[in-house]
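[Discussion] Sanity-checking designs against the backbone

I'm trying to build intuition for which residues belong where. Below is a structure token string of 65 positions. I'd appreciate it if someone posts a full sequence so I can compare it with mine line by line.
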């Protein structure tokens, strides 16, 4: 499985967890669930950005910009 496919799978898992948490009222509020999902999505985006930067450095022969 490619890294991008793994990230997509993680994001979909986070979305499902968000939907479930809203349905059962996680911590009593939907706002908590929205914030949690936003935080997870931001972490996934950060990992994706770090991975892309690492791939650029590797493609450049290990020299950073």
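Best answer:
Here's mine. Compare freely.
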């Amino acid at each position: 499985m490619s890294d991008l496919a793994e990230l997509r799978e993680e994001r979909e898992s986070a979305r499902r967890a968000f939907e479930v948490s809203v349905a059962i009222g996680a911590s009593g509020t939907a706002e908590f669930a929205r914030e949690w999902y936003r935080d997870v999505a931001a972490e996934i985006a950060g990992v994706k950005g770090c991975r892309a930067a690492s791939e650029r450095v590797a493609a450049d022969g290990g020299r950073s910009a």
